[in-house]
Amino acid sequence: MKRFSLYYIFIFTLLVSCSSIQESVGSKKNNSDEFLVEKKSPLLMPPDYNELPVPSSDSIKNKDENNQVKELITKSNNTDSNSNNSNNSKSSFEELLIEKIKN
Amino acid sequence: MIFKFLSKNFYIGFFVVILIYFLDRLSKIYVIQLDKNNFGSDIFSSSYLNIVLIWNKGIAFGLFSFNEMYLYNILTLIILIIIIMLIVMSVKNHRFKRYSLLMVVGGALGNLHDRIFYNAVPDFIDFHVGEFHWFIFNVADIFITTGIIFMILCEIVGNNNKNEKI
Predict the structure, then answer these.
(1) Domain-by-domain residue ranges, chain B?
(2) Which residues 6+ apart lie within 8 Å of A60 measured at CB?
(3) Is A18's CB within 8 Å of B60's CB?
(4) Is the reported ipTM for this assembly greater than 0.85?
């Protein structure tokens, strides 16, 4: 009888598939050891950082800025010339008026 | 033609195995679907019973949870051989012991199906008293355990009868 009981228990162990809650929750999982974690070296600037080429987008921006400045200058020049012209015209008109009055 | 020669007991036995197999499959499919809907959290929880889906890659009590596929396949093959042996035993035995064996076969086929198609068996019934948890099991395990208990009882009762006759 003992032989049969052992035989049945062997069958039971193989066929049944129950699992413990501890295994499923993860107590048997390999947790990482915090003392094995290597420290990383501090962040440093690379030695040739200043020699790196300037990105192309920046040059375009600079060009745009230069153009804008140039435009501003030219505009201001134009406005000055216009104002000069207007002043000239004003002065000629005044002179004409004065002459007419004199006459 | 073969069906004519099969006895009534065969059909009843076959029906018992199929019934247990489908009960197990239905419960597992339902729980897996509920687990998908709940995004892996507890499906049901109370002070005595929790329903949580856990995949067991090993055998009873979480033993032999192999990561290597060939060891897992060997274990599955051994289980298949045992199931065939149990079927042969059920044909040879009669009455109560026969149905105990068929209960074990039905449950074992349910677990074997998951082993082949999912590479793990889903367990979801978690009885607990406070913080003390019993092993998580499924419907197939209930039938296998009941069948094995009945078989041991049959052995005990059978031996007692033999001793009385002597």
Answers:
(1) 35-165
(2) none
(3) yes
(4) no
